[in-house]
Amino acid sequence: MEIESYVVVHNIAKRHNVGTLARSATAFGVTELILVGRRDFNAFGCHGSTSHVRFRHFHSLNDARLFLKEKNCDICGVEITDGALPVNDHPFKRSTAFLLGNEGTGLSAKECEICDFFVYIPQYGSGTASLNVTVAASIVLHHFGVWAGFSERTRDGNKFIVAERPVKQGRRNYCAETSDSVIEERKLKKENGSNAFFDESKSGESSSNMLDVLFGGD
């Protein structure tokens, strides 16, 4: 059975962290980076890594959970909870998706509900209460890669060899979808009004050009 890892991105306050998460994801063998809610993202800090990891989008956490369960994938919350296990104990059993909390408030109750178990990163110094979300992701993904026995990438001098860019996202910093998904998103926006995830005014993209992105030329 092939072991895979996923990263679920939901409710991260600093959108530029997605680019850095993508860089860590490619370094540690993540299969897909799953965006929940908003589809556009800031690729600052990715250093080209967004071309080497697949992005998938879901409108809700429950939709993401159903997809991951179809993959026979555990969902692991990275959070300091009463029942959380230290990540260095490698408490993994199968393919795993990692859900990291908001930089300020951590995982919400709704996010915790979809998790099968939790891990935390032990700290040994007294100067900070928690780690940056991208730092935490890197540590956890590295531990999972060690447990899963992922093959180390070939090195050339003091760098690892970067593969050719195989993935085309359709539009830079945007997770493209089918026309049905676009219609569903518009329906949700009508029903619920604009919110933090569906408000596209900040990104400079209007909903009217979504179908153009999906079916237009390169």
UniProtKB/TrEMBL annotation:
Q: Which SUPFAM superfamilies match?
A: alpha/beta knot
GO biological process terms on file: methylation; RNA processing
Give the record's keywords alphabetically: Methyltransferase, Transferase
Presence of keyword Transferase: yes
Q: Name one Pfam family in it.
A: SpoU_methylase
Named from the GO MF annotations, one term is: RNA methyltransferase activity
Q: Which domain of life is it from?
A: Eukaryota
Q: Which CDD domains match?
A: SpoU-like
Does the keyword field hold Transferase? yes
Q: Which InterPro entries match?
A: Alpha/beta_knot_MTases, rRNA_Methyltransferase, SpoU_MeTrfase, tRNA_m1G_MTases_N
Which segments constitute the tRNA/rRNA methyltransferase SpoU type domain?
A: 6-142
Q: What is this protein called?
A: tRNA/rRNA methyltransferase SpoU type domain-containing protein
Q: Which species is this record about? A: Tripterygium wilfordii (Thunder God vine)
